[in-house]
Design a protein that fits this description.
Length: 162
């Protein structure tokens, strides 16, 4: 009996040791997982911050018949802006930035021409990368296409200068 009990105790001790080691292993695994999760989180935060600051002086605009996508853009005041236009439509379009506090109204016509801040004409299928200098004055600027009937069809947008 006494021997059997002693053996049982020994087994229990061994079992406890194994359990302890297993727990230690589990804790180490857990800590590594947490570290990995934290690293991932930090990396994601950094990436999103980098993308946000990096995209400010670069614009990507898609032209279709008849829309600008996105139609709301934001750029930093006074900076040189690289505009990449992807033309996916079948007809010619313009990307026109109107001067601050001007608006083409229902149509773009000859009276609106002196109020143009900057413009580029893009032929169908002719994607382009161009540069222009952002206005110095912060505010909301209107974007339009100057082709007859295109404003009416929805080729309008806003450019926020910050
Ligand atoms: Cu157009």
């Amino acid at each position: 009996m006494a021997r059997g009990a002693a053996q049982g105790d020994m087994q229990e001790v061994k079992l406890r040791q194994v359990n302890k080691q297993f727990t230690v292993l589990q804790i180490q695994k857990h800590t590594m997982k947490n570290k990995l999760a934290l690293t991932c989180l930090l990396l994601m935060l950094c990436l999103s911050a980098c993308v946000q600051s990096g995209s400010s002086n670069k614009l990507n605009v898609e032209m279709t018949d008849f829309a600008f996508t996105p139609s709301q853009l934001t750029i930093p005041a006074g900076r040189e802006i690289t505009l990449h236009i992807i033309h996916k439509g079948l007809v010619e379009h313009d990307f026109i930035i109107m001067k601050l506090n001007t608006n083409v109204g229902l149509h773009f016509n000859a009276e609106d021409q002196p109020n143009v801040y900057w413009q580029i004409k893009v032929q169908a299928g002719d994607s382009q990368t161009v540069t222009f200098t952002a206005p110095d004055q912060p505010g909301m600027y209107q974007i339009v296409c100057g082709m007859a009937g295109h404003v009416e069809s929805g080729m309008v947008g806003t450019l926020e200068v910050k």
